[in-house]
Amino acid sequence: MADTTSSADGWRHRHLLDVDTWSADELERSMVLAGSMAASLRERRPREELAGRRVVTFFGEASTRTRLSFELAARSLGADVSHLDAVSSSVVKGESLMDTVRTVGALGTDLLVMRHQRAGAPYLAARHFPGHVVNAGDGCHAHPTQALADLYTLRQRLPRGVQGARVAIVGDIRHSRVARSDVWSLTTAGAEVTLCGPAEWLTGVAEWLTGVAEWTAGVGAGRRVSVTTDLVRAITGADAVMALRVQRERLAGAGPSLAAYSERYRLTPDRLQLAHPDALVMHPGPVNQGMEIDRAVAWGPRSVILDQVANGVPVRMAIMALLVGPGS
Ligand code: NCD
Question: Which residues form ligand 1's pocket by a CB distance below 6 Å?
Fold first, then answer.
């Protein structure tokens, strides 16, 4: 991976493509820095880590919270921020992704935030971009900043901490870049993750986990992840339950009917009773109320869904400061 060359103040990663290569210490450092960013935001204290730097957000897929929080984060660090929409860019005139990336680099961009429908696209971009690349979601592969916002939220809201906590992630795991990156951030931080959904939506997931455990040997050792179709088993006693959006756009007729899924796996008040009495309810958004989660649960007292959104800003500030900060 073209990930390890430059470093700001001892930070060994030049890009953020996924959190699979991060150590527990690196996660800890990013979380502590995010905490300091959150304090600056609360106190409306401007920061200057990215003063004089140019950030471009390049989104080839729809986004509300991710794009907005990257832009707010970059501005809060003093950066000059521009947005490039794939629909209005020369991509529609046939320009290749690499040409677009080189062009953005030639315009003096220090950091490129990129969301792309193709898994791996940010990795390719990182090979051609002179600055830093941050993956804001690539196909069904990875969404590292969401995984960091989720970890930050759990650290903030779990009364007994993340180490040893049981987190159930429920839904279309196969298509979820959030679930894949969450597996890395949460297990590296010591949580036990259970991935749950109907069998068709777990296809390939066990193999993926075996694969990652093998190629990361050291990093993978000791991770606690399991896969099950049994919702009761997944959520009984859980400290946090995360529902995933049913991604209609990625479901080409395969798998259970949406009505059957909703019937069997929707997070309802009754089902939530199985979890730990003070379990947290999470969802990366956007939420399809009544499909994967009931309204009463999504916006009930245990929900931290809006914390996940809000925490996206300080977490993304921390990432950008680590990548681009002094010395890089
Ligand atoms: C997710 C995404 O785009 O990967 N949303 C997000 O960024 N918070 C999840 C989804 O689209 O369902």
Answer: 65-66, 137, 143, 146, 177-178, 245, 247, 284-285
Which residue from 141, 148, 178 has its CB within 8 A of the most atoms of ligand 1, so it is best to mutate?
178
Query: How many structural domains are present in the chain?
Result: 2
Quick one: tokens of 191?
């949580």
Distance 146 CA to ligand 1 centre (A): 8
Atom of ligand 1 nearest to the CA of 244: 12
Tell me, yes or no, if the pTM score tops 0.85. yes
Q: Which letter, b or e, does each residue of 61-99 get, where b requires 16 or more Cβ atoms within 10 Å of its Cβ?
A: eebebbbebbbbbbbbbebbbeebebeeeebeeeeebee
Both tokens of 187, joined, read 């297990």
What average pLDDT values come out for the chain (328 residues) when binned by 10 residues?
Answer: 52 95 95 98 96 96 91 97 80 75 96 95 95 97 98 97 97 95 95 94 84 53 85 98 89 78 97 97 95 97 98 98 78
Q: Are residues 158 and 304 in the same domain?
A: yes
What pLDDT, on a 0 to 100 scale, did the predictor assign at position 204? 86
Q: Are residues 201 and 289 in the same domain?
A: yes
Q: Which atom of ligand 1 is nearest to the CA of 312?
A: 8
With the most atoms of ligand 1 within 8 angstroms of its CB, the residue from 63, 143, 176 to mutate is 143
